[in-house]
From TrEMBL:
CDD domains: ASKHA_NBD_OSGEPL1_QRI7_euk
UniProt keyword annotation of Oxidoreductase present: no
Organism listed in the record: Sesamum alatum
GO cellular component: mitochondrion
Gene Ontology biological process terms, A to Z: tRNA threonylcarbamoyladenosine modification
Taxonomic path: Eukaryota, Viridiplantae, Streptophyta, Embryophyta, Tracheophyta
Entries under SUPFAM superfamilies matching the protein: Actin-like ATPase domain (SSF53067)
Localization in the cell: Mitochondrion
TM helices/strands, residue ranges: none
Name recorded for this polypeptide: Glycoprotease 1
Function: Required for the formation of a threonylcarbamoyl group on adenosine at position 37 (t(6)A37) in mitochondrial tRNAs that read codons beginning with adenine. Probably involved in the transfer of the threonylcarbamoyl moiety of threonylcarbamoyl-AMP (TC-AMP) to the N6 group of A37. Involved in mitochondrial genome maintenance.
Length: 469
């Protein structure tokens, strides 16, 4: 069963951030308005028929703005819940950037057993620990639900079965305590958490988001306004790290990436000649499926037996595995470097004032990745912003923080009903693009995986802004 791992450092870590003063809105006012039924129309993303995209997901509600303007100088305290993949996470964050608590329960035993995320098992594991994780986050923050201003929760992209667990819990807390709720885009949260740790980070900026399921290069023009410069046409880099770790017989308990990174330090990165993917495509898209195949073939050709754990391998065998790990990592990251260089070029043409490249998502905790990308940004006189590893991998802080950013813009939903039926239809967005594709950078190389299900977050927000007088 999943075990609870609280934040590595102290339960209450304090990262203070001096943001420009914002007009906080009084939750008491909000609750009163809710009681008076003065909400501004159909803004819940959760219960609406998900086919009607004319309604924006987020409310850009005029009343909300009025409430902001009328609000007292009240600091927001937001609970963030994340269950989109294999980590059950919750955190409590203040609008001044103070992290009051962070709790993550990882499904490491399931990862070892299945060599990846099995949705049904992952759902069960989330369901088993969600109440405990949220309670622990509140306890460590020394707050109760009564002290919260809102609840933020990941509604996509991710595995539906898993998203559902978090959204149900969030709606239960929000419904019971009459709290507004913010539905958060998981990848936007990976990018925006950088603004919590780096107070100089203003829009516009470029972000490279690298995780187990996503490889995204975006131009973040403003909050909720993103242009997708590139994405993966098949696998993400984290998936390639995880499979490489599995085939090399590495210890998967902390997921594959850290194990490959560690072993690669012993190897010769030039010993195996892997081909850099997509050299011929002059775009910003990624592909890791071919590199995975190259790694598998190299492992087979060296007769490496993954059933012998690395700890029991002979020194010669260990050396061969380390060489493959190092050579894989060099080429996997070179692919990132090449696409980032092009993305910087494209983005600077659109927004010459850009000063930062954000690198976030689980793979951004890798030191080799950070140091190589740092060289790229230095060449361009930009600054690299990488959140600390505990905020790069999936966590509740990034969800709470993104909730705060949108909430302050008046984008939230009213409290759900106190007693919502178990079978209420939830608006979950397993495939949900962050922004529109950069028209000039369109590639012919694409696969069915990129087919969209929901309109992008950016288009929904733009539509809501246009319909708001
Ligand atoms: O963002 P994340 O925690 O979850 C997803 O949204 O997918 O990313 C998880 C991915 C996994 O593939 C994991 O192997 C990878 O991030 N990862 C790393 C490292 N730490 C985590 N990859 C390479 N090096 C690392 N140090
Ligand atoms: Zn993630």
């Amino acid at each position: 069963m999943a075990s609870l791992i609280s934040n590595l450092s102290s339960a209450i870590s304090r990262l203070t951030l001096l943001r420009k003063p914002s007009l906080h809105f009084s939750v008491k006012t909000l609750r009163k308005l809710e009681a008076d039924r003065k909400w501004c129309g159909p803004i819940s993303p959760f219960l609406h028929a998900s086919t009607n995209y004319d309604f924006a997901h987020f409310s850009s509600c005029p009343q909300a703005k009025t409430m902001n303007a009328l609000g007292q100088d009240e600091e927001l305290v937001v609970l963030g819940i994340e269950t989109s993949c294999d980590d059950t996470a919750a955190a409590v964050v203040r609008s001044n950037g103070e992290i009051l608590s962070q709790v993550v329960s990882s499904q490491e035993d399931l990862l070892v057993r299945y060599g990846g995320v099995a949705p049904k098992m992952a759902e069960e594991a989330h369901s088993l620990v969600i109440d405990q994780v949220v309670q622990e986050a509140l306890d460590k923050a020394k707050v109760t639900e009564e002290d919260l201003s809102a609840v933020a929760v990941t509604i996509g992209p991710g595995l539906s079965l898993c998203l559902r667990v978090g959204v149900r819990k969030a709606r239960k807390v929000a419904g019971t305590y009459a709290l507004p709720i913010v539905g958060v885009h998981h990848m936007e949260a990976h990018a925006l958490v950088a603004r919590l740790v780096e107070r100089e980070l203003q829009f516009p900026f470029i972000a490279l988001l690298i995780s187990g399921g996503h490889n995204l290069l975006i131009l973040a023009r403003d909050l909720g306004h993103y242009i997708q410069l590139g994405t993966t046409i098949d696998d993400a880099i984290g998936e390639a790290y995880d499979k490489t770790a599995k085939w090399l017989g590495l210890d998967m308990r902390k997921s594959g990436g850290p194990a490959v990174e560690e072993l690669a330090r012993e190897g010769d990165e030039n010993s195996v000649k892997f081909k850099v993917p997509m050299k011929q495509h002059k775009d910003c898209n990624f592909s890791y499926a071919g590199l995975k195949t190259q790694v598998r073939l190299a492992i087979e050709s060296k007769n490496i037996d993954a059933s012998i754990p690395i700890a029991s391998a002979s020194s010669e065998d260990r050396r061969a595995r380390a060489d493959i790990a190092a050579s894989f990592q060099r080429v996997a990251v070179l692919h990132l470097e090449e696409k980032c260089e092009r993305a910087i070029e494209w983005a600077m043409k659109m927004e010459p004032s850009i000063k930062h490249l954000v690198v976030s998502g689980g793979v951004a905790s890798n030191q080799y990745v950070r140091s190589r990308l740092n060289k790229i940004v230095e060449k361009q006189a930009l600054q690299l912003v990488c959140p600390p590893p505990s905020l790069c991998t999936d966590n509740g802080v990034m969800i709470a923080w993104t909730g705060i950013e949108h909430f302050q813009m008046g984008r939230y939903d009213p409290p759900p009903p106190a007693c919502e039926p178990e079978d209420a239809m939830l608006d979950l967005r397993p495939r949900w693009p962050l922004g529109e594709e950069y028209a000039e950078g369109r590639s012919e190389a694409r696969s069915l995986k990129t087919a969209r299900v929901h309109p992008s977050l950016t288009s929904l927000i733009q539509a809501s802004t246009q319909t708001t007088p």
